[in-house]
Design goal:
Length: about 650
């Protein structure tokens, strides 16, 4: 007897569900897309326990006719296409007729729906693919689907679900994306009893951006408006100051469908190339409309990648669309310098040409500059402040506190050199020659004994020591000092947090808030103490270093971004990265004039740490050239 049988419908639906329905967010996506296809003007989503125990999607769309209500749950039951010819001109989000069947196969579903043609509605209840009840009922026009106990009959799937709050985060992410792609529809997401998202549905994308990301983001975006014979591109591009460290704040829509596309993201990167630092990604909401014939959306039901038949054209158009938006709107930023220097600031043409890796945000430098010029009048944080930040604090007017006597420092340094052992001088390419070498402990550079020659380009400290000329990159060096301090405290389980005199309120997305609630302990250990402030915002009360609000916010968001995108497994690496970020933001920037006292204390700090010769990113902090090399260069000797 043969072994092959045809699977029954329930079994094949369960298998299909494995592909389409991965988690509560995928259920929500399918149901909300059905509501959009049904022409709804308002869609409300409610979830409990991250959607695992309960999901409800209610719309005011067309409703389902009584006769269709049960059939809608059959596999390949769809009202959206009639034959394969229609596949080439799909204007709806769904067309496979798989979603309802798949969802009903792995949960308990209740459908309540009514069309305008009927004076009564219909109620259908299905459990694990079996119809339990069908009856007439009174209800408004539109559709409500309730999905309970997702994966209750597929334990293997259930096991893969994450924490409720993480699942809730995924749901709010997908609802946000769909809402941004459909400003003409009002969306509401209620999670665990409270409203997480509510968009106006007034067909204005900017108001939708406002309701999802908050006003701080909405006021920093520029309109995109571009069209040629083949394509229409609209949306909003964020100014450089709201760029983030991952792509989570980039949403791209193709013919109203949320998609992912490498071609498009690289065109966006290219347009921002000179405006953003490395590893920063622009905020963007981009709507692209092209002839559906030119795209293949039928790649995979659950994946969002699309294929274009004319990638080059798409790249070029997106690049121009975004670039035009950036160039036609002056990227004016008012720098809060107060007093005399409170002029708006603009990128000059020259600055725009600076390659991405070297671009430095101007505002910070201006702020630093201001601090320098107003040294005398700035209050120093009190002595009781955590000593880890001495170096950061000391960077400002130096009062001579905490400065180790020079001899001691030198001695300490000397013994360190002996411990570390012999010469390990690494050669560094500097221009054409190879005469500049990176100093290292083996090279033995008692920096505090050196004579300060001066500061070059407000960035490099020049020192003379014995017959060597030493150059210290002030930012890299300070970064190293701060990093070592933070790391040491972290390893010793000492608190890194410092109370902010004025707590900082940050607007975030609902998903980010959920994540921060989940990872409170992790952030606490890094020195960030915050609490939920309602309305998708948090109030930050303590941070790991004493800085200006803008840089604290930047550091916090940067840490949040990469922690959110990192996988849990490499926790130590995440901590290191987080501390690097904090150190970088806390450290004295390049392009800042330093006085002799400041230079001296920086050098002493540098000597005290374990690995003073590279910054946390591995770049050298100290270079040197010998008198001999110079004399050779000047042909004094051969
Ligand atoms: P698809 O969306 O691919 O057609 P689904 O399984 O998601 O398949 O839905 C099956 C059918 O049920 C749809 O084609 C549509 O006719 C009907 N339907 C589902 N949800 C709704 C809704 N919210 N409003 C009106 N009709 C709906
Ligand atoms: Mg569908």
């Amino acid at each position: 007897m043969g072994k092959i049988i045809v699977l029954d419908e329930n079994t094949s639906n369960k298998i299909a569900a494995g592909e389409v329905i991965e988690r509560p967010a995928s259920v929500v996506k399918e149901l909300v897309e059905n509501s959009i296809d049904a022409g709804a003007g308002s869609i409300s989503v409610e979830i409990r326990k991250g959607g695992i125990s309960y999901i409800r999607v209610t719309d005011n769309g067309s409703g389902i006719a009584e006769d269709d209500a049960v059939i809608a749950f059959d596999r390949h039951a769809t009202s959206k296409i009639r034959s394969s010819d229609d596949l080439y001109s799909i204007s709806t989000l769904g067309f496979r007729g798989e979603a309802l069947a798949s969802i009903a196969a792995v949960s308990n579903v209740q459908l309540t729906t009514r069309t305008a043609h009927s004076d009564h509605g219909v109620y259908v209840e299905i459990s694990a693919g079996n119809v339990k009840e069908v009856k007439q009922t009174g209800c408004p026009i539109g559709t409500t689907l309730v999905v309970k106990d997702l994966f209750f009959n597929t334990p293997a799937r259930y096991k893969f679900l994450k924490k409720d709050s993480t699942e809730a985060g995924y749901v709010s992410d997908i609802v946000s994306r769909i809402a941004l792609g459909n400003p003409q529809i009002s969306f509401r997401l209620i999670s665990g009893g409270s409203t997480a998202i509510h968009t106006p549905g007034n067909n204005d994308l900017l108001s939708t951006i406002f309701s999802i990301y908050g006003k701080d983001t909405a006021k920093e975006v520029l309109e995109i408006n571009y069209s040629d014979s083949k394509i229409k591109i609209s949306g909003y591009a964020g100014k450089p100051e709201i760029a983030r460290s991952n792509r989570s704040h980039q949403s791209i829509y193709l013919n109203r469908r949320y998609i992912k596309s490498k071609v498009i993201t690289s065109a966006i990167d290219e347009a921002y190339k000179t405006l953003l630092m490395k590893n920063k990604y622009a905020f963007i909401v981009l709507n692209i409309e092209i002839n559906p014939m030119l795209v293949d959306v039928n790649v995979h039901p659950a994946k969002m990648e699309v294929r274009f038949s004319n990638e080059q054209d798409i790249f070029r158009s997106v690049y121009h669309a975004v670039n035009n938006a950036l160039m036609h709107n002056p990227l004016v930023k008012t720098v809060g310098l107060g007093g005399t220097d409170d002029k708006p600031f603009q990128f000059t043409e020259k600055e725009k040409e600076i390659p991405r890796t070297e671009y430095k945000p101007q505002s910070l430098d201006l702020e630093r500059h201001f601090l320098m010029e107003h040294q005398e009048t700035i209050e120093l944080p009190g002595d009781e402040k955590s000593t880890v930040f001495e170096c950061a604090i000391k960077d400002y007017p130096d009062t001579g506190r905490n400065v180790k006597p020079q001899e001691n420092a030198a001695e300490a340094f000397g013994s360190k050199v002996r411990e570390t052992g012999g010469m390990q001088t690494e050669e560094v390419q500097a221009g054409t020659g190879r005469q500049w070498t990176a100093a290292d402990p083996g090279g033995g550079v008692p920096l505090s004994k050196a004579r300060i020659v001066g500061q070059a380009f407000s960035t490099y400290i020049m020192l003379e020591l014995g017959d060597e000329l030493i150059v210290v990159d002030q930012h890299a060096a300070h970064e190293r000092i701060v990093f070592e301090g933070l790391k040491k405290r972290y390893m010793n389980n000492e608190p890194l947090s410092q109370m902010l005199a004025a707590p900082l309120v940050l607007e975030l997305t609902h998903q980010e808030i959920k994540f921060l609630e989940d990872e409170k302990d992790f952030f606490y250990k890094l020195g960030f103490i915050y609490e939920n402030f309602g309305n998708n915002s948090i109030v930050l009360r303590s941070v790991p270093y004493d800085g200006r609000n803008s840089s604290i916010k930047e550091a916090f968001l940067e840490v949040l971004d990469f922690v959110m995108t990192s996988s849990k497994s490499d926790c130590n690496a995440i901590v290191d990265d987080a501390l690097y970020t904090i150190a970088c933001k806390a450290a004295v920037k390049a392009n800042r004039k330093l006085g002799d006292i400041e230079i001296r204390s920086l050098l002493e700090e540098l000597e005290r740490i374990e690995n003073p010769y590279t910054c946390p990113h591995g770049r050298p902090t100290v270079l040197k050239i010998t008198k001999h090399e110079l004399e050779k260069k000047f042909k004094r000797i051969i």
